Give the backbone structure.
Amino acid sequence: MQSQVQYSLADMIRGQMFEGFLLVKSAEQRTSANGSKYLDMTLGDRSGEVNSKMWDGTCAPPKALSVMKIRGMMLEYNNRPQLRVDKMREPGEKDQVDMSLLIPCAPRPAAEMREELFERVRAIRDEKLRQLVLLRLEDAGDRLDYYPAAQRLHHAERSGLLHHTSTMLKGAAALCELYPALDGDLLAAGVILHDLCKITEMNANEVGLASEYTLEGQLVGHLVQGVAEINRLGREIGMDEELRIMLEHMILSHHDMPEYGSPKRPMFPEAEVLHTLDLLDARMYEMQRALEAVQPGSFTERIWSLERKLYRREK
């Protein structure tokens, strides 16, 4: 099998051959009426998903949320599209899989966003604060490159956590110029750390999709997890107590109100700005995604997370 074709599942018609990479949404081995085994799968890309059958019963079902190289033909069954899979294999080292064709991805490369993030960390003047942020990023490791910021809703995309963080860092820099009394280093540290424990709150694979929330994520949550890590590391490295507690408060209060998970509301300017940037970036992301799905001059459906419809301007 050669390189991936450029058309998407939504563009395919009956009788058309497909050759390329697809995301496995589900797969299981089943037995037909005549006793032969086959694979029943749901395969997808960014444009949609399709029921797929592979009649070779000797193949083991691929793992859910894995990427497979597929060759087959688009057919119909009960007036619905169905992909007949003739060959299937895992991607090899020489394969160049464009994940942006399969799932929502951040609009910028992870390596580029990561370098900007570390450049900002290196500029933090307080040695202990800089050390703490670097230690937390070291704990995150390579997961930072592909983790989404949510299972659904804002920045639920490959490298979504980096995308969300990098956008907020740019917003923080702009607001620090507008309000010079802000401690830019403290605000930047809060931006970088505020959602970092989503890496332990959710289970996500290298594809960049979160399959479920972890036990720790469900029972504790990323706000409390984040505070606990800052407290632990801050004490270990001998960080200034007041600065450590202020950073803990920023993480704890960035959802603003108890009904959104914060037991404390922001109680100093940097904490307030962190909350505002977080809310703004999340809403702008959700609005943009919703408006992209409708025609100019029309309204979206009611978006439950925003509790309103949105209008896409005509010109």
In short: The beta strands are 17-31, 37-45, 48-54, 67-77, 80-89, 202-204, 210-213. The CA atoms of residues 138 and 144 lie 10 Å apart. Residues 269-292 form the longest helix (24 residues).
